[in-house]
Amino acid sequence: MTSSWNYVPRVSGDIVTALSGSCFCVSGPTGEIDAGAPQGLFVHDTRIVSTWRLWADYEPIDLLRSMTPEPYHAVFFGRTRSGTADAPSSVVVRIDRYVGTGMREDITVRNVHRHPVRCTIDLGIGADLADLFEVKEGRGHIRAEVPLTVLEHAVAAERRQGDHRRGVQVRARDAVAHERGLRFDVEVPGRGEWRTTVEVHATIDGDELPSSFPPETPVDQALPARRMSTWRRSSPRVLTQDLWLQRILWRSMLDLGALRIFDPGPPDTSAVAAGAPWFMALFGRDSLISSYFALPLDPSLALGTAQTLARMQGSKVDRLTEEQPGRILHEVRLGATEELMLGGGRIYYGTADATPLFVVLVGELRRWGLHPSEVAALWPHMDRALAWIEDYGDLDGDGFVEYQRTSERGLVNQGWKDSADGITFADGRVAKPPIALCEVQAYVYAAYLTRAHLARESGEESEARHWADKSDRLKRRFNQQFWLPDRGWYALGLDADKRPIDSLASNQGHALWAGIVDTDKAPGVARALMSTDMFTGWGVRTLGESMGAYNPMSYHNGSVWPHDSAFAAAGLMRYGFVTEAQRIAQALLDGAMSFDGRLPELMCGFSRSELSVPIPYPTSCSPQAWASAAPIHLLRTLLRFEPWMQQRKVWMAPALPTELGTIHVEDLRLDSTKVHITATAERGEITGLPDDIQVVREARSPLTSWFSTR
User: Fold this and answer.
1) pTM of this structure
2) Helix ranges, 48-180 (H)
3) Is residue 498 part of a domain?
């Protein structure tokens, strides 16, 4: 390897995000919320607080430090402006913000002088009750704030939207309420403190949601705190000699814990939201890929995601929402403004890839030997998903899954590159649907083989042969029609006229991961992905630099997405391109170092030789689920760790860069036991396995891969 896992300058941010489940608060670095910016406190996809400004004696507080010790907890520490250059202020203000179902702020005013101090604390409050889509950049006009209703020690606001009402109440027991917010007349004794608690409660159709952080309950006993504590205790522990890798994996664990959303009923099932701030909801593709990547960390997240998606699996044909029997949804929204939602409904189904990915995830849970009865209960949903592929996914019967929206309200592009200009030819022309994407065929191939495995394990040989034959036919057709011999890479897709979309794109890395690539074509894919056209030094570009639509600052046409690059690394490792896989892993982890351990949703596609730090995409989500899960999947890729508990085998042949030293993984869940892994660049050991489990200390080739039936 030509570079080392060394220090990279870090990029600082100018927003602070605190979140718990689907509720989140985005503010500036001082904790203030600006109604004119994409900031606010959001509950049920509604901005219930659009202005939040704390002043002391009619002056802003000077920020000294802000931090987020927990995902749901932000701290802002500053001082008042009452002092002078020669005699600085003696009044320190600390704000502890806790976000759950609503928000709680503990405000502490501390007097470090020996004489008493009097001051007036003003909390300016505004609520526009806008839908999340209205606030998000580029999605409509932000509303005027609703006049506040003054109550005793509280202010409130409510807005009606059609048949729905969304509202907020902000209260503090010792506050004087007025039409612009709350005021506190404060006297702090010498060397003393004054404290108050401000509660922010959301109301849905007139009903106040219960607080996640009630003042009478210690913070560490509140539900979000208890869930995070349980998550930490139950997650595997990774110990590394590389302290930055340790920090990156720790940050991934915390962020994924924060991005969990919970079913309100028993058994308190958790799934993973796509990302903060704009996608704190269940997304089919994002949630499936994220929980697949995070399987070594917490398999219950994958199980909960699959169970939740199965409950909402399509059952009828609806052209507006694009629901179809067996189809897995694209996204769920909870806001009051349904006309702003895709398809005009709370659940939108317009995605081509979530349905086969659902099958793949359930099969992977099976291979890990986890929750056997719960996984078995998902098999009928797998068969419904496979039926969707056959009955609705293949629009013209050519053997490939295509997409074309059935409503003007739906997405034009329905793969993971779902921006309107995300699928283009090499000359920059936008492809016209119906479009059969490269990676979607790869996911379908993996889904067919997954179903073949399950049938074989159940002794259903004819059923196993049926699905294995389907996978063979799809692989042959794919390699015949998608391969571009004059280019040396796979087409991004086939357009409405079945013309190969000939641009050099990252999607073929997903095809490597799924194993649909013929072995004689894999070297060409590896060369393409690692060319200067594609590889930036921070990851793999979504679109090659020489392509007509390339723009390093675009969303899908030249940017670098960590999850996309992690797929490429796993695919390259699968086909034996170890050095190339290590280079991508190193690039992504170096990028995470520059963001203090947290990979953003995406980065601009500038070359590392041009800029010594990666540049984040301006509206990138952070934390974002599949970016947070990518380092976990990279570690699995470098360990070359693949369990198949039904075969009573675990494959592990580490290909760790020597710079990482020794890695220990403790309490990794397999089957009904917890195992420990110790790995170096040369070898790996697994302890804690049942005696009948064989450890296979060899790299797995495509012909003996976990998707193969041979």
Assistant:
1) 0.92
2) 132-135
3) yes
